[in-house]
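User: Hello! My lab partner asked me to get a predicted holo structure for this protein. The small molecule is NAP, SMILES included with the sequence. Please write out the structure tokens.
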Amino acid sequence: MTVLVIGATGEIGRAAVAALSEHYDVLGVGRSTTPAVDFTRPETLDALFADHAPFEAVVVLGGEIPFAPLSELTRENFESGLASKFLGQVETVQRGTAHVADGGSFTLVSGILTDHPVAGSAAASAINSAVNGFVVGAAPELPRGIRINAVSPTVVTESVQYHGAFRGFAQVPAAEVAQWVLRSVAGEQTGQIFRAGW
Ligand SMILES: NC(=O)c1ccc[n+]([C@@H]2O[C@H](COP(=O)([O-])OP(=O)(O)OC[C@H]3O[C@@H](n4cnc5c(N)ncnc54)[C@H](OP(=O)(O)O)[C@@H]3O)[C@@H](O)[C@H]2O)c1
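Assistant: Hello! Below are the structure tokens for the protein in complex with NAP.
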């Protein structure tokens, strides 16, 4: 059976696809792939599940969050980040649960900003915290032994565009984050937030 990776074209997603492919068949998707998934159009999730399920596991390593000074963050900024990174992951779980095998799993992504903010991260910190809260709250309700965890990376070595904002933070190679994804998929734990690199 196949592991679905949403966000497979990103820095972390590419590393996760490489690590998972050593053990599983992997279907990697993003907005720019065929098939495509766009969290702002939830019907694309339904089409993906209808055409390609069942899955042994579903991994989400995508979604966008806004960065801006608190005084400039708009309601639209929050709504776009919630629609993409938060509701995108929530709806993946809600719409995907029926298409995941017994004993399968969901692995979501949050990030270090939940606990260690940087300038401009108020929305990102909040949205990542919401993802972690969803994992904790959803885990006991998933049926048929299906597990759910989040991987929460510190800043990734390859994501050089972020390094200026993350001065003094430990960095973690995307390949190491991918090992936490593999641990979530292959392991037994549920309702956990796996801190990758911090
Ligand atoms: N990189 C870091 O240092 C770091 C640290 C902590 C947490 N994170 C979190 O980890 C996740 C992945 O980060 P990354 O750096 O690997 O991201 P990235 O390189 O920017 O890639 C983002 C991925 O998400 C997909 N995506 C974006 N918007 C989407 C949408 N609306 N619907 C479906 N897919 C969408 C993209 O697909 P397309 O390319 O096809 O558009 C791409 O595959 C993000 O949630 C990020 O906040 C990253």
